[in-house]
Amino acid sequence: xxxxxxxxxxxxxxxxxxxxxxxxxxxxxxxxxxxxxxxxxxxxxxxxxxxxxxxxxxxxxxxxxxxxxxxxxxxxxxxxxxxxxxxxxxxxxxxxxxxxxxxxxxxxxxxxxxxxxxxxxxxxxxxxxxxxxxxxxxxxxxxxxxxxxxxxxxxxxxxxxxxxxxxxxxxxxxxxxxxxxxxxxxxxxxxxxxxxxxxxxxxxxxxxxxxxxxxxxxxxxxxxxxxxxxxxxxxxxxxxxxxxxxxxxxxxxxxxxxxxxxxxxxxxxxxxxxxxxxxxxxxxxxxxxx
Length: 290
Fold this sequence. Notes:
Oligomer: single chain
Helix content: 25-40%
């Protein structure tokens, strides 16, 4: 059994495409097929169309409101963990879909490499160009980088150890965890995957990235509906990540730098700068209300 978790936000058509790719892959992976369960967390509870997708193998859970990506995933993870604490969970974006014949490796991967707790997959955009291979983090500078090149290790080895992988396509081997893994609920959108991986990496869990499984992603097809909110959430989450995973000096440097740039550009790009500053204010309020 493999459990899929995806989060809906007015994305029924995209999730239908994702489901079609999962069903086709599961049924074609072996003569007997592969048992699977798809869990959809509905972050747009007034979007009743998503319930039309329900079936014995597809469950829909309504969130009370739009609670963000990480908290929605936590609902799904908790449910799966209660059903089967030894399961494989595959978190996948609603605007992503599977490449052909890549599910069998997912089922067998953690059997072959039981040392891994979290596994990311290579991600391509819908043009077939590499979008994500591995995440890098420079603690001394606070720079978070996204790799989009296949290293020699990724080309020739089953996986490469890394610091973090994208939540767009992320597998979790639940049997490696002493309790149900969870995202930090203080994140609404962006960098929650980065924080998730670093927290468990710091606890001794191994994280890998593989090119043996490939996912295609229609980049920002949902978040680009409101680019200013995307910027606001991104700034807030980036500052929160630095606060948690770098020194105070590095965190303050980026806080002041982003604030300064937002202030001096407010007459040139008022709307963009305003949302950037809102992200800064939201971060400060979150930190100092504790």
